[in-house]
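Hello,

Our lab assistant flagged a job as stuck in the queue for most of the afternoon. It eventually completed. Since we weren't sure the result was trustworthy after the delay, we are filing this so someone can double-check. Below is the sequence as submitted and the structure that was eventually returned. Let us know if re-running is recommended.
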Amino acid sequence: MINQKSNIMLIGMPGAGKSTIGILLAKHASKNFIDTDVLIQVNHGKGLQQIVDKEGFQALRKIEEEVLLSMKCVDFIIATGGSAVYSDKAMSMLKEDAITVFLDVPLDELQKRVGNFDSRGITKRPDQTFEDLFQERLNLYNTYADITVSCNRLNQDEVVDLIMEHINQKA
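-- returned structure --
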């Protein structure tokens, strides 16, 4: 049941605010916080874009899947990389003990937040635009989400409050 899950996993596009909201949510919910993008960077000693540039976007997706599958968390807020949803195996495993929250941010807002799309460490095909990536991932985010929070025109505190409200309604 959803109310027995100890973790909260945040999913969404790059620029959706998973890391920032995750930290605030961890403070609010008295849980630990982990950012899988940071884990990857620490474990590999280089940035996400460096991995994409040297090894390709598929390599970063594989690394992300390995990190996700190795996680054993209790009472954590988990901010995943935007491409975590490409691994059904990892998402299914994490969802066993996590409420999955999709931070739904409109495309135009994401484009403003991301800035330089080509230096962000985003796992995309070389021919893919940010809009193409958004459309491709939207269905995956909706597939895995237990809760979808429309973040349009909300500040960070309002998003955290809305997440907690949804979780408390499910409890």
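-- support follow-up --
The delay was a queue issue, not a problem with the job. The result is valid. The CA atoms of residues 24 and 77 lie 10 Å apart. The longest strand covers residues 98-104.
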